[in-house]
Amino acid sequence: MLHIENIRIHCIKKRGVTEEFPFDQDTLVFKVLGKMFCLTSISEPSSINIKCEPEYAIELREKYEGVQPGYHMSKKHWNTIDLNSGIPDKLILQWIDDSYSLVVSSLPLKTQRELEQLL
User: Fold this and answer.
1) What are phi and psi of 38, to 5 degrees?
2) Which of 25, 52, 69, 70 could serve as a FRET partner for 87 with CA atoms 20 to 30 Å apart?
3) To which H or E segment does residue 101 belong?
4) Nearest-CA neighbor of 99 among 40, 20, 24?
5) Sign of dihedral through CA atoms 83, 89, 56, 107?
6) Is 19 within 8 Å of 26 (Cβ atoms)?
7) Using one digit for the tens of pLDDT, what is the confidence trace for 34-53?
């Protein structure tokens, strides 16, 4: 099972990523240039919410019992992943990468180019 610190390290290694607590002292949110792509509770880090293409979100929910519509999020665009459900860590990390890429692709082209220039 992925530990929250592994997820944190994976997220903050990406270009333009910040970690914040915009909602409360418990909900850790990872953003790329101000746009959320992953969040979790630090007091009960047994799940994460990640952004997903709507059709793919449904596909994942049908295929994996540990994937549910986003808790307290847009059910169309977000999935909640149960980290204790047996889904391979590598696959969860790939979904985090997909979420990051989805958010980056929605940024204006000028902003995407600026992101590419960041170290």
Assistant:
1) -160, 140
2) 25
3) helix 89-106
4) 40
5) positive
6) no
7) 999 999 999 888 999 999 99
Residue type, 78: W
Instruction: Work out the angle at residue 6's Cα, subtended by the Cα atoms of residues 28 and 112, and round it to the nearest 5 degrees.
Output: 65
CA distance 43 to 37: 20
Length in residues, the chain: 119
Judge contact between 46 and 36, C-beta under 8 A.
no
CA distances from 97 to 10, 30, 83 (A): 9, 12, 16
pLDDT tens figures, 70-109? 988 999 999 999 999 999 999 999 999 999 999 999 999 9
Structure tokens given for 38: 């992953």
Taken in order 77, 34, 72, 79, the sign of the CA dihedral is positive
